[in-house]
Amino acid sequence: MMPIYAVSIADFSDDYIPHLLSFVAEDKKQRLGAFFRREDRVRGLLADLLIRKIAAETFGVSAKSISFGTNAYGKPSLQGPLNRLHYNLSHSGDWVVCIIGDCTVGIDIEKKHQIDLQIARQFFAPEEYEYIEEEPDSERRQARFFAVWTAKESYIKAIGKGLSLPLNSFSTVSQGTVEGVRVFEQARWHFKTYFLDDEYTLTACAQNDSFCETVEIVPMDTLVSYFLSR
């Protein structure tokens, strides 16, 4: 089973930041410090802490001892013997989400907003654009756009190639949905969408279909308390 965790930044207190930063690698501290917006710094910090907590509890190691690496395109991974635990993170608006698995995984969350659907015509595969445009209701058309967008992003993040892969080179839509199995470059990929919040769209992608049924919400005080006690 591949669990998905989510934590909301809505109740986060900046008073915790100095202690929490002591668990973060120096290069990550510098990247967090470079963010102009406070919300971006908080989301980045909590994403790092969330996977540290999960990995530390999974392997029985110190959260501070966990180290990360990246591939040539910047996809992060756990280092050393912990690298058999696959994970992927995403954050948007109030939410930070993480998927864990024993195979390659990807996840994407996006806060829904009004968007020019010509973006879909320009960047999506024809089947995806048609799937969006055939919906007569404007609000549901926007919802379909974000369903496709998060599915595409979750796959791109899973394979770890960044936007070097053209968005229109593959289609996540089949039989009127983005959920189910797709074959890209002779490999099978599974997609599943989740409900987290009316304002957000969340899609996961993995090399098998052992998805959890619901997202596990991690209370902010649970996450913060774990590190404050260390």
* Percent range for β-strand residues: 15-25%
Q: Kindly report the spatial arrangement of strands forming the biggest sheet.
A: 4-5-1-10
Looking at the structure, what is the overall shape?
globular
Classify the secondary structure makeup into a structural class.
Answer: alpha+beta
- Number of DSSP helical runs: 7
Record field, number of beta strands: 10
Largest sheet: 4 strands, mixed
| N-to-C SSE string, H for helix and E for strand | EHHHEEEEEHHHEEEEH
For the termini, the CA-CA separation is 29 Å
Cα-based radius of gyration, to the nearest Å? 18 Å
Low-pLDDT sequence parts: none
Mean pLDDT across residues: 95
Fraction of residues in helices?
A: 25-40%
Structural notes for this entry:
This protein has 230 residues and is of the alpha+beta class. 35% of the residues lie in helices and 23% in strands. It is built from seven helices and ten strands. The strands form three sheets. It has a four-stranded mixed sheet with strand order 4-5-1-10, covered by helices on one side. β4 and β5 (95-101) form a beta hairpin. α5 packs antiparallel against α6 (138-159). The protein is globular and about 55 Å long. The two termini are 29 Å apart. The mean pLDDT is 95.
What is the topology?
Elements: E1 4-8, H1 17-21, H2 26-33, H3 38-59, E2 68-70, E3 76-78, E4 86-92, E5 95-101, E6 105-111, H4 118-123, H5 126-133, H6 138-159, E7 180-184, E8 187-194, E9 200-206, E10 216-217, H7 220-228
Parallel strand pairs: 1-10
Antiparallel strand pairs: 1-5, 2-3, 4-5, 6-9, 7-8, 8-9
